[in-house]
Amino acid sequence: MSSELAGLRREVEESQKRVRDSNKLPYLVASIAEVLDLEADDQDVEELNVGKKKSRHPQKSAIIKTSSRQTVFLPVVGLVDANKLSPQDLVGVNKDTFLVLEELPPEYDSRVKAMEIVEKPKEKYTDVGGLDKQINEMIEAVVLPITEKEKYVRIGIKPPKGVLLYGSPGTGKTMLARACAAATDACFLRLAGPQLVQMYIGEGARILRDAFALAKKRAPTIIFIDELDAIGSRRSDEGSKHGSREVQRTMLELLSLLDGFGSTDDVKVIAATNRIDVLDPALLRSGRIDRKVEFTLPDEEARAHILQIHSRRMALHGDVNFEEISRMTEDMNGAQLKAVCVEAGMLALRNERVYVAHEDFAEGVTAVQARKKSSLNYYA
């Protein structure tokens, strides 16, 4: 009996030494293609039975794809608990036996990591003026499905997966998206449409895949895609050039990703565009980007509110009348109204005053209108 125990100990020590040596050797990087539940055969079941209780013991197997472009079926996974593995996971495998030696951290494109905002956005709804209707629509479509998901479950409806913000430039689309992320305490991941149009084939689609994978890992997350028309324009038969084909390939990947996650997931997509008329209908159909929110130029009352928001930290003279100034700023968007406040402050500094007077705002309006007119003449 003692000799048998000694022999078993030697076998265990040799096996442990082989395991240690395998871990030290260079291994291949592979990804899990599929995890399978296989039942052991009858002989194995008899050996695994405990006492008189008989049951079939499921056995986890896996299919892996290695970096050397091999697809391998593993009846026995290896040194990693197969229950912890899922498709698309990266693993290190032995280059001879292909047994899984360890799990590897997920790999994301470096450009996607740079797009992540670690600190939560600090914008609030009070920082957005003249958009009360749009704020209510965004709360229903984005904020409540994350913060009060149980209400939607109780009623039995599915919240929207995505929201499209469309309207003129400078009307507050990006600021409202950041305010929604702050209200949900969510990570804010901003992608710009032109950045997704890459020179090399498949690069834009890969950035999108990595962005959505990162968003799911950091959930709750709001993915904000600015200038969606850069990759989401309507498809046509003229897309024979390499650039057009690559844009269409990126858009098809976005469609696939929008179909790939549920409306109850803590990942919401907010897209913004100035040209809703050029977008492909496949993007706008129900089940992908369900809600469309229009951003128009602010009216007189909204312009006065926006001016008050951007000047609340300024030292104002008592004669400042925002209602009168708002009547002078017809056809101005929120960004231009902010520029009026900045210009008024600069005029006060030039005149060596410690406060901003009404005439400073009036001159600021004139200066911004002159810049606006010159830019229009430039593009004419």
Can you lay out the helices and strands and say which pair or pack?
Blueprint: H1 2-24, E1 28-39, H2 42-48, E2 58-66, E3 71-74, E4 90-93, E5 100-103, H3 110-115, E6 116-117, H4 132-147, H5 149-155, E7 162-167, H6 173-183, E8 187-192, H7 203-217, E9 221-226, H8 242-259, E10 267-273, H9 281-284, E11 289-295, H10 300-310, H11 322-328, H12 334-350, H13 358-379
Parallel strand pairs: 7-10, 7-11, 8-9, 9-10
Antiparallel strand pairs: 1-2, 1-4, 2-3, 4-5, 6-8
Protein name: Proteasome regulatory ATPase subunit 5
GO molecular function: ATP binding; ATP hydrolysis activity
Biased composition (Basic and acidic residues): 7-21
Distance between the termini: 99 Å
Number of strand segments: 11
Low-confidence stretches: 40-55, 376-380
Lateral strand order in the biggest sheet = 6-8-9-10-7-11
Output the radius of gyration. 30 Å
| Binned strand content | 15-25%
What is the CATH level 1 assignment of the largest domain? Alpha Beta
- H and E string: HEHEEEEHEHHEHEHEHEHEHHHH
CATH hierarchy: architecture of the largest domain: 3-Layer(aba) Sandwich
- Inertia-based shape: elongated
